[in-house]
Amino acid sequence: MKSTLIIFAIAIGFVFAGTTNAQTQVVFTKGTTEKTMTITVKPKDMNTYALNVKSGQVINVSVSGDIAISKTNEFPVIGLNLANGEEGTDEWQDGEGYLSVLTGRDGKFVVSINNSDRKRSRTFKIKFSVTNNREDYQGGTSTDQ
Question: Fewer CB within 10 Å, N side or C side of the chain?
Fold first, then answer.
């Protein structure tokens, strides 16, 4: 029984280590506040990207290109999500081809990009930008924190 628990603990450790290492760090060129990349997401897969920002900054992420509407559902096959947002601290809004985050804390923010297509990879452009202007937040009325 004891050896089963040890093997289980090691397996869980590998799962969490793999998830943490799978994030691609988004680094801006010196003097810039945005970066555009061409990426590919495999069928039924997810890519994750991490940005380090300060409280009160706005992160905007947008995608363009091969994010077509699914033939079986009425939504794009490429979806954006804030993977580690904290309710009551951070504010975020996602929609068709965009994610906007008003940060309420300093730290690493993880954005996931999902491909719900079962058969083919999708290649598209993704743009990350970070500003200090709260008016750049695209998600309704923001509150001062």
Answer: N
